[in-house]
Amino acid sequence: MRLLHTSDWHLGRSFHRVGMLGAQAEFIRHLVATVREHDVDAVVVSGDVYDRAVPPLAAVELFDDALHRLAALGVPTVMISGNHDSARRLGVGAGLMGSAGIHLRTDPSACGTPVVLSDEHGDVALYGLPYLEPALVKDAFEVERAGHEAVLAAAMDRVRADLAARPPGTRSVVLAHAFVTGGEPSDSERDITVGGVAAVPAGVFDGVDYVALGHLHGCQTLTDRVRYSGSPLPYSFSEANHRKTMWLVDLAADGAVTAERVDCPVPRALARIRGTLEDLLADPALARHQEAWVEATLTDAVRPTDPMARLTERFPHTLTLVFDPDRAADGPEVSYARRLAGRDDQQIAEDFVTHVRGAGPDAHERAVLRDALDGVRADDAAREVAR
Fold this sequence. Notes:
By secondary structure, this protein is an alpha/beta fold. It is built from eleven helices and 19 strands. Helices cover 31% and strands 23% of the residues.
């Protein structure tokens, strides 16, 4: 059986204020084309379909379009809810959709009830484990401690118990949304440490043929049978070196797994550049990034004038600007807090300018600061008299 493993669509999410809905729609078209081109038998989507519990209308419309396109192919699709999704909202109409081949698994209590598909070699049981928030499900799973490992282990016990009651040779696939030990996170995943230690060992999933993971946004192989598909689009500059793909997984008659990556459309390359403003504007090696989304880190000792405006002349898609000056280890910013003690208001204000800008105020700026401080003192004195 051939599976297409994807996850973390985050429909409705933007990239540093740039709307991604068009790129997400292009991904859906690519997904459908891949299913058709590669004769996929089933699609598995391992959570975070939406970016938030109450998604914008445009995201809901795109999801609806995706469901109709997948159903029209006649290829079964199994989806679980992730930590960004509202499981209840995503699962509305699940029973009706199942008759159209779209199987939504958002109810933790149904972890041990698979979607059963068949090919020429027999049955394949696909178990959907939606994101399990430990504090919310620990009682239902009868675990003593509200930890991610404990609730996932309890869910997998149900999976293995159901699988053991099925005919010998039944192959098995688990969809799960979790942070599994050995995975490499990025800056764009929401922290799931609330409710217990976030990471769970891959051994929790022992006993099944393939584990289709979601949550981490980089495509990763933890073992031959345990993989993250990653997000199909980048959602932070920490993903600049990611290759965005889906997994095309072949499950042999004996449960052996072979997998290859299918590239996703790239709306625009990402680039992280660092240096002084003048170097970034002049370096010919950076010409390749002129059409990329850019995160620029400026190392100038003194903050340049209008840095964003000047950067966007060369890099028109600059989205973030970070100021990280290269200064001597004994520079004024190192001991700034200690240097406040015993200093008058004028000195503190001048030190603050130096701390922020990298250079102290000139004579005119010192006069402006002095006038401002004198004005504040005069106001304070007038208020005291009025009392």
